[in-house]
Amino acid sequence: MDFEFVHNDERLTVRAEVGKNSIRVVDGDSEISYDFFSADGSLFTISANGKATRVVAVKDGETIYVSTPGGDFQFRLPPSVDGDTFSEAGGGSGDKSKLVAPMPGKVVKVLVEEGQAVTEKEKLVIVEAMKMENPLVAPYPAQVVKINCEEGQLVDTEIILVELKELEN
Amino acid sequence: MDFEFVHNDERLTVRAEVGKNSIRVVDGDSEISYDFFSADGSLFTISANGKATRVVAVKDGETIYVSTPGGDFQFRLPPSVDGDTFSEAGGGSGDKSKLVAPMPGKVVKVLVEEGQAVTEKEKLVIVEAMKMENPLVAPYPAQVVKINCEEGQLVDTEIILVELKELEN
Amino acid sequence: MSLAKAIKKILVANRGEIALRVMRAAREMGLGSVAVYSEADRFARHVIEAEESVLIGPPSPLESYLSIEKIIDAAKQTGCDAIHPGYGFLAENAEFSRVCTEAGLIFIGPGPEAISLLGNKLISRETMEAADVPVITGKKIASGKLDDFRSAAEEIGYPVLIKAASGGGGKGMRVVTDPAELKDAVEGASREAKSAFGDETVYLEKYLTRPRHIEFQIMADEAGNAVHLFERECSIQRRHQKIIEETPSPALTPEIREQMGVAAVAAAKAAKYVSAGTVEFLLDEDGSFYFLEVNTRIQVEHPITEMTTGIDLVKEQIRIASGDPLSFAQEDIRPFGHATECRIYAEDPANGFLPSSGKIVYLDEPSAANLRIDSGVYSGCEVPVFYDPILSKVITWGKDRRESTRRMLLALADYKALGIKTNVRYLQAILQHPEYAAGNIYTGFLDEHFPGWTDERPTAEFDVAKVGAVLASLHQETATSSGDESRRGPASIWNQLASWEM
Amino acid sequence: MSLAKAIKKILVANRGEIALRVMRAAREMGLGSVAVYSEADRFARHVIEAEESVLIGPPSPLESYLSIEKIIDAAKQTGCDAIHPGYGFLAENAEFSRVCTEAGLIFIGPGPEAISLLGNKLISRETMEAADVPVITGKKIASGKLDDFRSAAEEIGYPVLIKAASGGGGKGMRVVTDPAELKDAVEGASREAKSAFGDETVYLEKYLTRPRHIEFQIMADEAGNAVHLFERECSIQRRHQKIIEETPSPALTPEIREQMGVAAVAAAKAAKYVSAGTVEFLLDEDGSFYFLEVNTRIQVEHPITEMTTGIDLVKEQIRIASGDPLSFAQEDIRPFGHATECRIYAEDPANGFLPSSGKIVYLDEPSAANLRIDSGVYSGCEVPVFYDPILSKVITWGKDRRESTRRMLLALADYKALGIKTNVRYLQAILQHPEYAAGNIYTGFLDEHFPGWTDERPTAEFDVAKVGAVLASLHQETATSSGDESRRGPASIWNQLASWEM
Predict the structure, then answer these.
(1) What CATH number does the domain containing B22 carry?
(2) Helix (H) or strand (E) holding D197
(3) What is the pTM of this model?
(4) Mind telling me how many Å the CA of C389 is from chain A's nearest CA?
(5) Could you tell me if D363 and D379 are in contact, meaning their C-beta atoms sit under 8 angstroms apart?
(6) Which domains are delineated in chain C?
(7) DSSP string of B70-92?
(8) pLDDT at residue A132 is higher than 80
(9) Quick check: helix, strand or coil at residue D493?
(10) In angstroms, rounded to a whole number, what is the distance separating the alpha carbons of residues D320 and D226?
(11) Which residue has the higher pLDDT, D26 or D140?
């Protein structure tokens, strides 16, 4: 059976046969057999060649979180309706000219005005969240087209705070 | 709604209305309202009048285990088919003349013979389990009618090891 | 408990792990305790585990955990006779200490005079100078006007440090190396200071280039007895916030330790200090040390001192607040072995330490000998956006630094929190750095050795991760995300924001 | 690690919490480890958490954990260079120690000569007498024939104690007060001894009526250095099995402690002992003490010594086995504070301590400062019928006995294991007894104060229990009992019995 995931914005297919206590993963010509056991459905002991690895794997909504001794990985289930559009979680549309808050918070300072030209890395707006100030900076030299927030305003990660227009160097 | 349980071999009806975060229990004229919250479906914080009690409650098959700060309780769901016969778990039929092992183990000693008269508390058979010897004793003065086990035999809690016939004093 | 003044029930004016820590001490002493919580913390661990709890307001700290009135009301309403402030929020607010006492409640901490004196870094500096406690060379005071900052900075020479007068914990603090950055730094520090401490006053001092942050735990009673409980080295800092602390410091010789201990006790006596406090010093590379400030509260990193001394600092705070004398003398305090603390933050070290809020979909904190976890979270809980992103503290003990560090590495390897970003892998990388192992640490350690750090994952683990993903995809939703529980569970962040805006 | 003889990978010839304890020590030292398991332990925690594991046979201990051949094979097969036996099973088997060494494997424990000498209580008694270690008055040896037991018992005077010559842990032990009970007692003890230790030899000694069980931890290296790590009081016993241990003993004066420590080291030297061991004494009410036996293994209760001394006994065992000298001298060992251990058994104290096997449907072991849990189980695991019913050990530390006991009571209140019977409520009742609090304990304490103990539940809690039952009944099956996991999970006890019979 083929399992489809999205990992780091890339589609990924894992071809695997899952048995009661074992799983066989086929990758082209190579093939690896793993034994597995889970007491609670989250913490898995996965062994190959007598060596066991303890892995946490949980599904929450459309996201699968996996923790291995080597680090944590995040997989998303591919969108079921439209296979082409999967945007980065919490990160807006990827259009660099539209700046959103990195996390929900409060605008504590608006440093620029509409129409103003800004340089690369110039701070535009400061959002305070979890007691730390987080500046939004210009990704490239640009002109400020629109400012959609004011100081003191609570914002989430979906509101476009500043719209820019890239300037030719 | 009425919830039916068996607790200590007695039937028990709890009349309760369960809301999203609260439960109202009616007992005759009195009525208590509790708030509750559970993060994992097992550990519940149940509060009444601002005082919170942390309770673990899990269902495993037909048994519900509840742990409170005052001690642990065990409830069974009433038999769905036949409401009259619920025998004590692991304890055989309650007929004192038929002796079963208190837990699975190995018969290490048979101390009596068929036909023999025994006194109250006389040791009849010794079953070893989990490295400890556990003697089966006569519940009253009796005659040994039948011995269904021999030394070295593995037994579970369903095999009747010794049958007795009570003797009049 | 034979407490001099009767304390029977303590209101804990805080949240997270420190609220749980204080409630635990109360429970061990046979005392009652009451938690307070904001609307964002309805299902927080400190509320769920509390014997009793009171809702005190909306998520915004100013309307809940920083509201003196609401907290005093909650204490009265639940029949408390004492209040423990924890750290942060109102812990170093002299007004709160004063109002508690006026309301007939015992404030578990120093009195308002000591908090005021020490909370103002300008006055405390003068007090310490008078008591022969060394203060930092070249330190200068500015009035708050930008021009004065400029001239002071030029007189001392860059780099300089901008600090909140009523600050702590790295908030409202900026290093300035270039005069052009001075304006932004002063303004940013002022804003953060205002938001965090309700006081926008900032000042300026000489910035040492390779100092260690060494602090001494002090403890003093109403009778005027004062002792120190030895040092904690807290040089590993990111964004001026400690993330790894240890005791003893690998840098202190017995002689320097002795001198600093004497200075710490002198500082406590000069301020007529009562309760647990911390005297912070900067230790320069030449072995000279300078008074930095006194934190008039229990510190985040207090457990490492508890591990090596065997003294329960929170219980001792409660005893002292009841009027009891210190239960030990200086010579009774004999630290043993080595302890290390790592702070687990919900943040992304690979992305400017951006705080991370949301649901912890899976949490498994390690358990082992010589390991202590002070945690404020649980599997399935929400990390709200409104408060400090500290989740948990992992504390290890070993017979020496090497054993303590090794145990910490194993504990971090077993620390599993999914659904949010944490700094666990970053902490592991720091502890494995050869310069850390050698004890060559200073406050600029992370900036020097870990600029632009990113987590590198061995690809070998990716194969097993894919197997995990397949197995998880076959499995039903986790218990915390499925069924009735999640519908009963914490509201999403958006619901919380909505209710805050109303 | 700079070990003298190279140890790189250790096979742990045990199961349950002690297997996990040893694997932890290996991991902390950067050494590899291999678990072994029987068919009944396929999904046991010590297997799941192992880096590597080997199936060694059917559930019956004789065919798995007691099979020297299979264990040596497993060690060879996985490239181990050392074997740690834990406690129980082969831990005090001289033959096993000998065969390991012959097979080129380092046995982490004493050599076969010391085990043989001390394992035989008759020979060890003579050795100790020769070394001026006090041995019990009136002790007599019988040959194994019932008539000799009778005459010996009459000579000493009842009550007498029947003990397995190669015993330990309360197995193969009987007190006889009435001559009519002697036959049953000798036979029962012999059978248990045969089954538990493979040696049916039993002997007889004078039974002190109100003794305390005081034991001294010893540690000795190949160079002949021997030290003691102070005492453990293990007087709280049921069925001659320790269930609560503590250190220091509330009964020892500094003088008696000194004398007993000297005797313990003399015992170690007399037996040319190497590795960790325990010298057990009986302490009479008049302060006189008698050598009982030496346990030539790491003890169940070793963590309390680790808590007060800061020394990791298992790591030290490994170092000594590698040929390293002791890493400390007698004067370096300065115990600090008080530690208490409670053994959590799967048993029903209200029903003759009947062992309880089956599935742990829910497990939540406490976590707190000054608390250590050495556990061999997990939520959803099966407790097999074939082995000792110990699940876990709860160990607390406090600055004094009162604080340690108080912390233990809170830990036990937070210890939740459902699906099987445990002794948690019984342990709580013992710790709350005024005579326990006063330190008036002796080996007959439970028989005197807790005969026919039953758990009394306050009815107030029943109401909230019913609310819990309603909520649980509305909820789906627990994660461990539903879905694919349970079908993949451990077989029921009946399946196991069936496979054993085949």
Answers:
(1) 2.40.128
(2) helix D182-197
(3) 0.85
(4) 6
(5) yes
(6) 3-108 (3.40.50.20), 137-206 (3.30.1490.20), 344-421+460-502 (3.30.470.20)
(7) TEEEEEEPPPSS-TT--PPTTST
(8) no
(9) helix
(10) 11
(11) D26
